[in-house]
Amino acid sequence: MFRSPIAALGALVLLVLVHTTPTAAANPAGFVKDMGDKAFASLSETGLTDEQRAERFRGLLHEAFDLPRIARFTLGRYWRTATDAEKTEFIDLFEKFVVQAYSARFQDLSGKKLNVIQAREVSASQALVLSEILIPGKPSVKINWRVRSKDEEHKIVDVMVEGISMSVTQRDEFAAVIRQTGGNIDGLIKALRRKTASN
Amino acid sequence: MLDFNLALDKALLKPVAYVYKEGVPDPLQINVTNFLSNLRGPVVFANDLLQGEFERAGNTLLRFAMNSTIGILGINDFAAEAGVPKHTEDFGQTLATWQVEEGPYLVLPIFGPSNPRDGFGLLADSLIDPFTWLTPFEFRIGRAVGQAVDRRARAYDQLNDLEKNSLDFYAAIRSLYRQKRRDEIRNGAPATIKPVPGGLSGAPTTGAPATQQSNATPTEK
Question: What ipTM does the predicted assembly reach?
Answer without folding.
Answer: 0.80
